[in-house]
Write a structure and sequence with these properties.
The complex is a heterotrimer.
Chain A: E1 3-6, E2 16-22, E3 29-30, E4 35-41, E5 44-49, E6 54-57, E7 66-68, E8 72-77, H1 112-120, H2 139-148, H3 165-174, H4 192-197, H5 220-235, E9 238-246, H6 248-264, H7 271-284, E10 291-293, E11 298-300, E12 306-308, E13 310-312, E14 315-317, E15 320-321, H8 329-345, E16 358-362, E17 381-395, E18 399-413, H9 419-434
Helix pairs in contact in A: 1-2, 7-8, 7-9
Chain B: E1 3-5, H1 6-20, E2 24-29, H2 44-48, E3 53-56, H3 60-72, E4 76-80, H4 87-98, H5 101-104, E5 114-119, H6 134-138, E6 144-146, H7 151-163, E7 168-173, E8 180-182, E9 196-199, E10 204-208, H8 211-225, E11 230-234, E12 237-239, H9 243-253, E13 256-263, H10 268-278, E14 290-294, H11 303-308, H12 313-324
Parallel strand pairs in B: 2-3, 2-4, 4-5, 5-7, 6-7, 10-11, 10-13, 13-14
Antiparallel strand pairs in B: 1-8, 6-12, 9-11
Helix pairs in contact in B: 1-7, 3-4, 8-12
Chain C: H1 5-30, H2 45-52, E1 60-62, H3 68-73, H4 78-85, H5 119-133, E2 139-144, H6 151-162, E3 167-173, H7 188-198, E4 201-206, H8 210-225, E5 231-236, H9 254-261, H10 265-275, H11 281-303
Parallel strand pairs in C: 1-2, 2-3, 3-5, 4-5
Helix pairs in contact in C: 1-2, 1-10, 1-11, 2-8, 4-11, 5-6
Classes of the chains: A alpha+beta, B alpha/beta, C alpha/beta.
C-alpha cells in the first residue's frame, strides 16, 4: 500500500501548514526519516521527514499552498506500487467556535475541509454531489465543482489556459495551477499579478492590479499575524488603561545592576529585562491578568511566562521567558538577550515561542510615547511600553521638577478582567516601576 | 558644452576624420560646390579640394562601386546616395560586392567604406524621395547598418563607421538634420552595436529608431502625466544589434512597443520582435510584442496623408497606454 | 615589340598552363570532384597572357567569372588555385569562393566576380585609390562583351574619364554574352567606339594574337602610368567551350567553333616563337609538358587538401 504523507500537525492549536519548499521532487527516491519538505506553521519553519522509503509521488501541495493539517500531500511508493485513485479523506478537524450551532438539521453533510473550501469560494454545498462515506461532500467534490466553474477561457476551446509568458513563469516558480487562477488581463488573460495575488483557499477578494510598488506574498508569518490579530480584535472586547511612571529610581536600579554585572563580567541588563521582572512580580499578585479564557472557564495560570514582542523585518515574533517571576534579573537579562538575538537570526524554535501567559511590547526605543496593543490570544492582557522622556512634573509643595516619565498602557480582555482589576494591576505596577525595590515585598 | 545640429555633427565627423586620415575621401552627387542636397558637405570642397571631394554625375551604381573598389585598394571612402530611395540603383555594388568580397575571398580583403544616405518622410517629397529601407540592408551579412537619432550619436557613430573596416550603411533621417544637441568638439567614437537608453522607466519599454526616438520621448513625457513610466531604448545600430540592452529592459518592464517609420510588413520591427520572442525576455512578457510602424502604402504627397502614413506622437501615446494598462 | 627568349618561354608556359588547367578542371568537374559550375576560357589564352604580360608585379588586375586564365597569368600559385576550385580550406579563398569568385589579393588579383559587369565600377574606385596613392601603379579591368551592354559599364566609363583613373579596361569579346550573340548588337569596333565617345583612348585588336594584344595593352598601360587616364582595349576572341557547364551550345554551330579552333592562340604564338627563333621545337614541347605536369601536381595537391570545417561557417563575414 502506498504510504501517505500528510500535512503534519506540530502545534496544539495549529489548523493549517504552509508548504515552503520540497527538498525532493516528484519521482525521486526518498528514505524514511529523511527531511524532504519544509513547512511553516504560524511563524516557524519546520522540517518534515519522509514517512517511508521509496519513490516520492503524487505531490499535491506546492510552495505557498496553505493546507489543512492531516491532508494527504504526497505518497511514498514502493516498487510496483501505484498512486491510489482517490486520495484518502483527511481526519476531521475540531469544530471551530464559529461553526453552525449544533442541532441544525438541514446542514449538508460534508467534511470540514470541504466545508471550509466551499465557504471560501462561495460554493453552495447543497448543490454538490457528495461522493464521500455516508454521503458526505468531500474536498474532491468541491474541487471538481471549482474546476468546472467557468473561468474566462478566451478562444481556449480546447480547454487551454490563456496566460502571459510572465504569468506562466511565475506560476511555474510558485507551483500554482494556472487552471485555478482567474485572469484580469484582456479577455480574461492571466497576468503575472494574478499569480502573485492568487490565494488557493482564501476568501479574500483579489485586490485591483496595483501599478508600481513591491508586492510581498501574504504567506507564513505575515499571514499568521494577520489572521491572529483579526480574530483577536474582532472577538475580544479590549479595554485600555494608561498610566505614567517616574522612572528615576528604575533607571538608578538598572544602573546599579549593570555596575554589578560589569564587575562580574555578566551581560548587560536591558530596560526590557528589568521591566519583565517587575511585570512578572506584579502579575504574581494579580492572577486574573495572567489567565486564559477557555470554553466554559477561566484558567488562572500557575506559571508566569512573559512573552516579549520582537520586531523582525518580516513581521513580529514573541519569544517567551518562562517563569519570569521566579528567575533572577541576571537570568532574565541573559535569556531575553539570547531570545532577541535568535529571533533576529530566524533561529527560534517552537518551544521558544510557546506558552506565554502575558505579553510585553516595548516601542519606547522608537520614540513612541503611548500606544494600544492588541491582545495575543489565549492571553487576556498585553502591556504596551512607551518611551521614557524628561517631563516637567509637579513635586511637593507646588514646586516643579524634570523627571524621566514613561507611559504604559494595559490592554485587557474585558470578559475576564474588570476595570477595577485592571486598575489595581496598573497602580501596583506603577508603584513597582517607580520603586523597584517594592517588587520583592 | 556647445550645441550643434545633427547635420553639422555629420559634417564635423567627416571633416575631422578627413583631417586626421588622408585615406578618407567623399564621393557622391552634387557634394562639391552645391554642398550636397541637404547641405551636409557645404564648405568641404573648399577645405579639401576636388581630389578628395569627388563630385559625380548621376551614376549611383558606378559611384557606389567606385567606393567599393577604392576601399578594396586601401582607401576609406564615404559615398553619399542623395536619397535612400536611390540606394535601389546602388544595391548591386553594395549587396553583391561590398558585403561579400571579404567572405567570398576567404578573408583576403576588406571594404572599409561608408555609404551615407538621407531617409524618411515628412518633407512632402512623396513616393520617390521619402522611403526607409534599412531592413533590406540589415538582411545582408557583411553589411553594418547604423541609424543615429541625435547629433551626439550621429558624430560618434559616423566616426566609428569611418574607422570600421567593414561596409557601413549610415542612415540619416531628413527631419533630424535641423535638430540640435550637445556635441563635444573633439573626435570621439561611439561603438557600433551598442544601444542607448534615452529614457529610463519601469512600466513599458519602447524600442525606437531615428526620428521615432524623438517622438517616443515626447510620448513618454505625456504618459508620465498619467503615471505611466516609459523606458525608451534607441538601438542606434541595427546590425550589429545590441540585444542585451533590449532584453534587459524588457525583462524589467514585461511590455515592449517597437516604433519605426518604415513600412510594418518586412520592417525591422518584425526582426526585432523575433529576436525578443526567441530570447530570455519571452518568459517575462506580460503582453504581446507590439509594433507601431509605417502604413502599407507608398508615401503620399498630400500633407495630411503623408502624416497619417507613419507613426506620430499621439499614435505612440495611445499604443503605449494600451500596452501599459494591459488592454492588449 | 621584340620579345626576349625568357619572356617567350614564360608566356608560352603560361598559355599552356591555362589550357592544361582548364582541361583538368573540366575533367575533375565531369568526374564529380568539383561542384557548382565553371566558365572555361579555353581559346582565350592570348588575351589573358598578352594583356597581363605588360604589367609589373605591383600592378593590379580585376576580372570576371571566366577568369581562370587571368588568375594564372597574374602569377597565381596553381596548387592553391586548384584547391580553391575543389572548395578546400587551403584554397585561395578558403573554399568560400570557388571558380567564379577566385582572388589572389596579395598577388595583385582583386578577384573574379559572379555579377556580369560587377567589377567595372569597382575598377573605377581602384583607379581612384591608385591615383591617390600616387605610386604609378595601374589596373587592368577585364570584362566581356556581355558586360559591355550593362549600365554598370556605361556609368563607369563616364566616371573613369571624369577622374582620369590609371585603368586599362579590357573587353574580351568572345562573341557571345551567354547565348546572345554580340554581333546582334555590336562588334569589337563598335565597343571600342563607345569608349572613344566617352573619352577613353580606345582600340580593338585580334585577341588571339598574343603580340598584338600585348602591344595594344602595353601602349594603354604606358599612357595610364604617365597620367594619361583610362583606355579601352577590345580583344576579339572566342571561347571553345559553352558559357558554363550547362551550356548545350545550341546558339552556335560546330563549324563556327571549328573555325575559331583553327585560330588557336597557343598554336599561333608557338609558331611565332619558333619562327622568330625564340624557342626550339623541343623547348616548346618541354614547356608544354612542364605545364601539364604543373597542373597534375596541382590536382594531386587539391584532392588531398582538407575540407573546411562546418563550425567555421560564419567566420570571415566581418573584419574585426
Amino acid at each position: 500500500m502506498a504510504t501517505e504523507m500528510i500535512m503534519p500537525k506540530v502545534d496544539m492549536d495549529q489548523e493549517t501548514g504552509t508548504v515552503v519548499e520540497w527538498l525532493k521532487t516528484e519521482g525521486q527516491q526518498v528514505k524514511e526519516g529523511e527531511t524532504i519538505l519544509v513547512i511553516e506553521t504560524d511563524k516557524i519553519a519546520i522540517d518534515v521527514e519522509s514517512p517511508g522509503t521509496g519513490t516520492l509521488a503524487g505531490i499535491s501541495a506546492h510552495p505557498g499552498d496553505v493546507i489543512p493539517i492531516g491532508t494527504v500531500i504526497a505518497y511514498i511508493l514502493e516498487e510496483g506500487e501505484e498512486l491510489p485513485e482517490a486520495p484518502a479523506e483527511p481526519p476531521p478537524l475540531p469544530e471551530p467556535v464559529e461553526e453552525q450551532a449544533p442541532g441544525v438539521k438541514d446542514e449538508v453533510s460534508a467534511t470540514p475541509v470541504a466545508r471550509k473550501m466551499a465557504a471560501s469560494h462561495d460554493l453552495d454545498l447543497s448543490a454538490l454531489t457528495p461522493t464521500g462515506k455516508g454521503g458526505k461532500v468531500t474536498k474532491e467534490d468541491v474541487q471538481s465543482a471549482l474546476d468546472s466553474r467557468k473561468k474566462p477561457q478566451p478562444d481556449g476551446k480546447d480547454g487551454k489556459v490563456v496566460a502571459s509568458p510572465a504569468a506562466r513563469r511565475k506560476a511555474r516558480l510558485k507551483g500554482v495551477d494556472l487552471r485555478q487562477v482567474r485572469g484580469t488581463g484582456p479577455g480574461g488573460r492571466i497576468q503575472a499579478i494574478d499569480i502573485e495575488n492568487f490565494q488557493p483557499s482564501s476568501g479574500l477578494p483579489a485586490p485591483s492590479p496595483a501599478r508600481g510598488g513591491e508586492k510581498v506574498p501574504m504567506v507564513g508569518m505575515r499571514r499568521t499575524i494577520a489572521e491572529r490579530l483579526t480574530e483577536s480584535y474582532q472577538s475580544i472586547p479590549h479595554i485600555q488603561f494608561t498610566a505614567s511612571a517616574d522612572m528615576t529610581n528604575f533607571n538608578q536600579a538598572r544602573q546599579d545592576y549593570n555596575d554589578l554585572a560589569e564587575l562580574r563580567g555578566d551581560g548587560k541588563v536591558s530596560v526590557t529585562a528589568l521591566m519583565i521582572k517587575i511585570v512578572a512580580m506584579t502579575l504574581a499578585e494579580h492572577p486574573w491578568l495572567n489567565s486564559s479564557l477557555l470554553e466554559e472557564e477561566i484558567l488562572l495560570h500557575e506559571e508566569i511566562n512573559i512573552g516579549l514582542a520582537v520586531a523582525l523585518e518580516e513581521g513580529l515574533i514573541v519569544p517567551v521567558i518562562n517563569q519570569a517571576n521566579q528567575k533572577g534579573i541576571r537570568k532574565i537579562a541573559e535569556e531575553s538577550t539570547d531570545l532577541i538575538t535568535r529571533a533576529r537570526e530566524g533561529a527560534l524554535t517552537n518551544p521558544d515561542v510557546k506558552g506565554a501567559t502575558f505579553t510585553i511590547s516595548n516601542l519606547g526605543p522608537f520614540g513612541v510615547e503611548q500606544f494600544n496593543a492588541i491582545i495575543n490570544p489565549p492571553e487576556v492582557g498585553i502591556l504596551a511600553i512607551g518611551a521614557t522622556r524628561p517631563e516637567v512634573v509637579p513635586v511637593e509643595k507646588d514646586a516643579i521638577a524634570i523627571r524621566p516619565i514613561m507611559r504604559f498602557t494595559l490592554s485587557a480582555d474585558h470578559r475576564v478582567v474588570d476595570g477595577a482589576v485592571a486598575a489595581r494591576f496598573i497602580a501596583d505596577l506603577k508603584a513597582k516601576l517607580e520603586n523597584p525595590i517594592f517588587m520583592n515585598y | 558644452m556647445r550645441e550643434i545640429t545633427y547635420l553639422e555633427a555629420v559634417r564635423e565627423a567627416m571633416t575631422q576624420e578627413m583631417e586626421r586620415d588622408s585615406r578618407v575621401f567623399l564621393i557622391g552627387e552634387d557634394i562639391g560646390e552645391y554642398g550636397g542636397a541637404f547641405q551636409v558637405t557645404y564648405g568641404m570642397l573648399e577645405k579639401f579640394g576636388p581630389e578628395r571631394i569627388l563630385d559625380t554625375p548621376i551614376t549611383e551604381l558606378a559611384l557606389t562601386g567606385a567606393a567599393v573598389g577604392a576601399g578594396l585598394i586601401g582607401m576609406r571612402p564615404i559615398a553619399e546616395i542623395m536619397f535612400m530611395d536611390f540606394t535601389t540603383l546602388a544595391s548591386e555594388q553594395l549587396v553583391n560586392q561590398a558585403a561579400k568580397l571579404r567572405f567570398m575571398f576567404g578573408g583576403q580583403s576588406t571594404v572599409p567604406m561608408v555609404l551615407r544616405t538621407p531617409a524618411g518622410s515628412g518633407t512632402g517629397a512623396a513616393e520617390h524621395h521619402s522611403q526607409s529601407f534599412e531592413n533590406w540592408f540589415v538582411h545582408v551579412p557583411g553589411l553594418k547598418v547604423v541609424m543615429p537619432s541625435t547629433p551626439y550619436d550621429a558624430k560618434g557613430l559616423l566616426v566609428s563607421s569611418i574607422r570600421d573596416d567593414n561596409p557601413v550603411v549610415f542612415i540619416e533621417h531628413k527631419l533630424l538634420y535641423k535638430t540640435k544637441g550637445e556635441v563635444p568638439e573633439e573626435l570621439y567614437e561611439i561603438p557600433l552595436g551598442k544601444a542607448d537608453i534615452k529614457r529610463e522607466g519601469k512600466d513599458l519599454t519602447i524600442v525606437a529608431t531615428a526620428i521615432m526616438v524623438q517622438k517616443s520621448l515626447e510620448a513618454a513625457e505625456e504618459l508620465a502625466q498619467e503615471g505611466i513610466d516609459v523606458e525608451v531604448v534607441d538601438p542606434r545600430s541595427l546590425r550589429p544589434l545590441d540585444t542585451e540592452t533590449i532584453i534587459t529592459s524588457i525583462k524589467k518592464t514585461g511590455k515592449v512597443l517597437i516604433v519605426h517609420e518604415a513600412v510594418k510588413t518586412g520592417g525591422f520591427g518584425g526582426e526585432l520582435a523575433g529576436v525578443i520572442a526567441e530570447s530570455e525576455a519571452f518568459g517575462y512578457l506580460e503582453a504581446p510584442i507590439i509594433r507601431l510602424a509605417g502604413r502599407e502604402v507608398p508615401i503620399p504627397y498630400n500633407r495630411n496623408l503623408e502624416r497619417a502614413a507613419v507613426p506620430q506622437v499621439e499614435d505612440i501615446v495611445e499604443k503605449a497606454r494600451q500596452l501599459a494598462t494591459l488592454k492588449v | 615589340m621584340g620579345l626576349k627568349k625568357e619572356q617567350a618561354a614564360d608566356y608560352l608556359l603560361q598559355m599552356y598552363q591555362i589550357r592544361a588547367f582548364e582541361e583538368q578542371a573540366e575533367k575533375s568537374y565531369m568526374a564529380g570532384k568539383i561542384h557548382g559550375t565553371m566558365h572555361l576560357s579555353i581559346g582565350q589564352e592570348a588575351s589573358a597572357v598578352g594583356a597581363i604580360s605588360t604589367l609589373n608585379e605591383s600592378d593590379y588586375i580585376i576580372g570576371h567569372h571566366r577568369g581562370h586564365g587571368l588568375t594564372i597569368a597574374k602569377g597565381a600559385d596553381l596548387d592553391l588555385m586548384m584547391a580553391e576550385f575543389y572548395g578546400k580550406e587551403n584554397g585561395y579563398c578558403r573554399g568560400r569562393g570557388g571558380s567564379m569568385h577566385i582572388a589572389d589579393v596579395k598577388g595583385g588579383n582583386l578577384g573574379a566576380n559572379g555579377v556580369v559587369g560587377g567589377g567595372i565600377p569597382m575598377a573605377v574606385g581602384i583607379g581612384i585609390g591608385l591615383k591617390m596613392e600616387a605610386e604609378n601603379k595601374v589596373l587592368l579591368a577585364f570584362f566581356g562583351d556581355g558586360a559591355a551592354s550593362t549600365g554598370a559599364f556605361h556609368e563607369s566609363m563616364i566616371l573613369a574619364v571624369l577622374f582620369q583613373v590609371p585603368v586599362v579596361f579590357i573587353c574580351e569579346n568572345n562573341q557571345y554574352a551567354m547565348s546572345f550573340a554580340a554581333e546582334d548588337w555590336t562588334t569589337s569596333q563598335k565597343i571600342a567606339a563607345h569608349g572613344e565617345l566617352y573619352g577613353l583612348a580606345s582600340t580593338s585588336t585580334d585577341g588571339n594574337d598574343l603580340i598584338k594584344v600585348r602591344d595594344a595593352v602595353g601602349e594603354a598601360v604606358d599612357l595610364a602610368r604617365k597620367g594619361g587616364g583610362p583606355s579601352l582595349v577590345v580583344n576579339d576572341t572566342y571561347r571553345w567551350r559553352g558559357h558554363s557547364k550547362s551550356d548545350r551550345n545550341r546558339y552556335r554551330t560546330n563549324e563556327e567553333i571549328q573555325e575559331w579552333k583553327d585560330k588557336d592562340p597557343i598554336r599561333r604564338f608557338q609558331k611565332y616563337c619558333l619562327d622568330e627563333k625564340l624557342l626550339t621545337k623541343k623547348e616548346a614541347e618541354e614547356i608544354k609538358e612542364q605545364a601539364y605536369a604543373d597542373i597534375e601536381a596541382a590536382r594531386v595537391f587539391a584532392e588531398s587538401s582538407p575540407e573546411p570545417k562546418v563550425e567555421t561557417l560564419e567566420e570571415g563575414v566581418y573584419a574585426p
